[in-house]
Amino acid sequence: MAGLAWFLALVLACSSLQKLLERDRLSMATARLTGFNLAVARPVMLVAATVEAMAALALLFAQTQALGAVLAGGLWLGYGTALLAAARRGDRLDCGCSLAVRSKPVDGFMIARAFGLVALAGLALVASLAGPTVPGIEPVFAALGLFSLYHAAGEIAALPPLRRKAAR
């Protein structure tokens, strides 16, 4: 299960870094998602980036994995709940889930991804409470593989739906 903790840490670290590098874009996304004005959304986004970074670091060490899993799960639960509200309003959002700027309606994939990460954080919490795992290089490679699949799924979900031409 160490690979799971490393995977979640990688997701969190990349998300935090992206928020810091693309502050304007993701402050706007935070404002649209939360309904806050931009002056409030920017500090909220920066606090989220800080908590993501702290959770990522905590997930890397056996002594703090439970804390990291709780922080990560809380962040993703809040994000998933905000996405549900945005979907009910019919909002379009550039969620910042990829490096490309993509504004699209909040869909089931965005919501499922957030709540899926909550579930994985819960699994990491349970695993961390079961005791430390034997260190090795395998969890790092497992995490990198999961991370690649995670991003590939996001890119596939971002593709426009195929349209069939009507038969004449």
Structure description:
With 168 residues, this protein is mainly α. It has one domain. The protein is 73% helix and 2% strand. It is built from 6 helices and 2 strands. A two-stranded antiparallel ribbon has the order 1-2. α1 packs across α2, α1 runs antiparallel to α3 and α1 packs across α4. The mean pLDDT is 85.
Q: Could you tell me the mean pLDDT?
A: 85
Counting helices, strands and paired strands, the structural category is mainly alpha
Share of helical residues: over 70%
Beta-strand portion reads under 5%
Number of strands: 2
Strand order of the largest sheet: 1-2
Task: Give me the number of helical elements.
Answer: 6
Largest sheet: 2 strands, antiparallel
Count of spatially separate domains? 1
Low-confidence residue ranges:
none
